[in-house]
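Batch manifest, entry 17 of 40.
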Amino acid sequence: MQVKSTLLGLSLLLNAYLGWQLSQLSPALQPADSTLTPKVPQARPIRAKDSDTPAAVAQAQQAFEQARYEQALVSLLQARQTHPDITQRYAQQWWQWIDTQRMQARQTQLFAQLALVQGYLRADPQALTAQRLEILLYQSLGQPDEALTRLLIAYRRNPHYTEWQTLVDTLLVPRLVALSQQQQWHELLTLAAPWYDEKPQMLPLLIHQVEAHLALLQPAEALFLIAQADHTLRHHQKTEALYQRAQALQQGVTHVPLRRLGSHFVLEARLAGTTIELMIDTGASVTSLTQQQFATLAQAVDYLDTRTVSTANGLANVEFYQSEQMQIGDQVRGPMQFAVMNEMRAGPGLLGMNFLRHFDFDIDQQNAVLILRPRSHN
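Output type: structure tokens
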């Protein structure tokens, strides 16, 4: 009996000791109560010992873990006045956590986190990690141009920080590609010009600017940019090809890439705000669109009349319309009449002589290129 009493006493003492130890653990390590509402994800920084952690830092950390970012910022900046090293360490851990979860965060969370980062930057404008996070948050919020503006400012302050080059590659180049695909040439030039002043050795900046000037029918500006580039960029394969295009455009000659379709050639044209495919047909007097192409036109066109014309299937009544202009390559002509085919089918329309008659033209079949030389009376 005495042995049992002794063992029982030791068991009670051990349970009491373990309970006390558990109460001393960080709340993040204590067993979760399944009846409580789940908390927001926590940053889980590497904590200093409780006795070494300033009260304001502890308050800031608690507010941050509860997503009360405004209070977290106030407490952290208060602690920064007397404990700059500790607050800097906590801030770095906050930025790291926000960065890892920003792709899954809601927009309201991103705005709140952006305000937190910007508030910290007002107190410590040289904090590189916070600057980087501010840029990435703007990108996550769908504001790529604002992100690149902030990146440019940061790059000018500290051009040797390697992370800026990484962001240039991951943010600037894809943005230039997107603007080029969307044919937003003026926006592209506005974005690229200040960056080119800072990074004149960057090939994508040169290439996209030259392409934009060519699309805007500005060969002189394109040639000037190429002439100002260094020897390596000037003699790059892409630059030399653009140089030839710019010279040809300045002389009024346009080279239009073609796509083979059986024994025929297809090119891209711009009509009524829409890019369409047309098959070259020197036997057609008027350009024709399929009904599917006509339905996709982004801008209004004028209905002219309905005419009886001879087609491969016999006589047919065909509607004729007129657009302000049509563009192929760098060449624009207008007003431009076109017909709409009756049959419903996919595929290209027909490029007729009402556009081609303005040019002396050749088809370079080997290189799949249409060469357009404007006639003098045009």
